[in-house]
Amino acid sequence: QSDIPETNVDVLIIGAGPAGLMAAASFAHLTAIPSASPLSVRIIDKRSTKIFSGQADGLQCRSLEIFDSLGFADRAWKEANHMIEICMWNPDATGIIQRSDRIPDTIVGLSRFQQIVLQQGRIERFFLDNIQKYSGGAIKVERAILPTSLQIGEERVKVTVRKLTEEEATPPQATTGSKSDVTDGLFRSNLVGDDYEDKITDAKGGEEEVINAKFVIGCDGARSWTRRALGPEFELQGEATDFIWGVMDIIPLTDFPDIRMRCAIHSANDGSLMVIPRENRLVRLYIQLKEVTPDASGRADRSKITPELIFGAAQKILRPYKIDYEYCDWWTAYQIGQRISPSFSHPSNKVFLAGDAVHTHSPKAGQGMNVSMQDSFNLAWKVGLIAKGICHPRILDTYQSERRRVAQDLIEFDHKFSRLFSGRPAKDVMDAEGVSMAEFKDAFLKGNLFASGLSVDYGPSSLVVKSGDPGELGDRSVRSRNLEGVRRITVEEFEVKQSLAKGLPVGMRFNSFKVLNQACARPWHFQERLKADGRFRIVLFAGDILDPAQKQRVKVFCDKLSSSNGFMRRATPEGAKIDSVIEVLTIHSAKRTETELLRDFPDILHPFDPHTGWDYNKVFVDEESYHEGFGDAYKNYGVDKEKGCVVAVRPDQYVGWVGELEDFEQLQEYFEGIFLV
Ligand code: FAD
Hints:
Blueprint (H helix, E strand, L loop, with lengths): L5 E9 L3 H11 L12 E5 L12 E2 L1 H10 L2 H7 L1 E2 L2 E7 L5 E8 L11 E2 L2 H16 L5 E3 L1 E8 L4 E7 L19 E2 L10 H7 L6 E11 L6 H6 L6 E18 L7 E5 L5 E6 L5 E6 L18 H12 L4 E18 L10 E3 L5 E2 L7 H20 L9 H26 L14 H15 L24 H6 L9 H8 L15 E4 L5 E3 L10 E8 L4 H15 L4 H5 L10 E7 L8 H4 L7 E2 L3 E2 L4 E3 L11 H5 L7 E5 L5 E5 L4 H9 L5
Parallel strand pairs: 1-2, 1-12, 2-8, 5-14, 11-17, 12-18, 22-23, 23-26
Antiparallel strand pairs: 3-7, 4-7, 5-6, 9-10, 10-12, 13-16, 13-17, 14-15, 15-16, 17-19, 20-21, 20-26, 22-27, 24-25, 27-28
Helix pairs in contact: 1-4, 1-8, 2-3, 8-9, 9-10
The protein binds flavin-adenine dinucleotide (FAD).
The site of flavin-adenine dinucleotide has 36 residues, from α1, β2, β9, β17 and α8.
């Protein structure tokens, strides 16, 4: 019998980088979902502090939409630098770099947000504040804690952890020969071996504790301890290249004209450079280091890499323009490579891996933090709703089937993009070894859709009703595990359903257009009403509610929704409000001034509470606003203005099902496959 203290929790998150913090924030937002006992969540990190400078900085549209659903996109939006235009610089016939093209940084009209850049440390700060606010202090990062063993049992996962000393929890800096006392990020770079990890794993440090968790989420970065604890079958697979790049965050002193634009610069012979204008006069430079190459071990000698060496390379690439700096905020270097784990979840569905723990690639495409956060955003509500006894455990299979495919796409994108970026520009069409600048621009343009995070399209599963092969990943373990609960629908049937809302593709995130609140005429971006609070939503496009036949269709649908043996009542825990796990939101297309909320819309669309009265925030109209223009939502969502349709939306804003108002049984079947009704 051991005398190590033991604690039980619902969820243990290992690692408090972007992926771990997103998971913690998502759990904190589930507090309004009713449950017998509150969800207990712990999050541990081996380091003594969060990061304060450097690392990731690019935030894509989808991440901002998610931040908005958690309530802090405005903080990032205000503080960040906004990326508006990309300038391409290439050598002219004499080999001198010149601006050859300009393209918009974010594809126009994709999202209400555009790409912005802000240092990762600030984003971690926003998360920490948000977690504190929504969990009421119940979830907080426990720092300087190292997991030392993990055993998966029948009921729970047993994780032993140890408190570290301050010294053990502070990573060594490798700053050598730098101009100033600057923070470097080499300790986190893939140029570093496992020496630091080994040092702290051997530490004899402080007290031990056993945490018995129903679920463990490993968000502990590229050298994930959790991944290694799960066994060799989870090891990252892929390849490294010989391309080494340096990164510097500086305040530049330069005559280069586009220093406040995002630039992709290919020099004739000195390598490539990317300029990322940042907040607070900073500029990030990604600089190809042609003089550094990997040794026989396949890894470059990091002791040779100094800020002076990196900056010297930048000065050569930018010639004839001059660049210097007095202030450097952070620097690092990395070797380009793409690696992915064959599996993101243990077959028991009790231990999951997210973020850099399961996929790594080069940072230039600005994807790692975004995709990592989106992994745990996809996972946390599923785990939370199961831990609360609301949803069926089968939905956990969709974590791997949905997110591994995104990671695979990311790896392929980065593989192509980083090679085009690191290659020497072709001198002419006969120069087969050089990179064609037309091809590079084309990859940039196509990459921009992918890089926005808005091309993610989840395949059929228990959560997404569409035609296609649920195992299309080609991964046999996924194929066999993902079949349970998949709603079968033929291609023809699906085409008919999808045609009801062509602008809301099933499997993709619910796009946003402006609508007006029926009760007060305030314009809202509809996505603002899709908060990440763990609730599913039924969006009822009620059509022309003033047409008697349509009004009758809406009434019949709502009667079924409100019935005591319907899925809504059965999915809602006894005694809880009718909208506590599934919320109904309505958008109609009749004239606002001729419709009345209480007269024309059945009660279930604006439920009554004896303490707070009618709910005035659930019915919206597709009409022009006084001050903010016309969202034209029905047209943009591709929905018929007379007849409308019904759309089921997952808690993470992805469209799960589309049907007619008469398809109530199919909608019921969808929810019965997800909820423990
Ligand atoms: P990490 O950020 O690595 O966090 C892991 C956390 O786990 C850390 O806090 C660590 O202390 C902790 N941990 C590790 N091991 C243990 C353990 N055994 N026990 C407990 N805790 C542990 N991404 C973008 O999206 N956009 C960009 O513009 C971008 N630019 C980048 C630029 C550079 C120079 C670099 C290096 C990366 C960049 N990235 C970018 C990538 C991005 O930083 C990572 O993909 C992202 O941080 C991954 O988040 P994560 O939470 O999965 O892992």
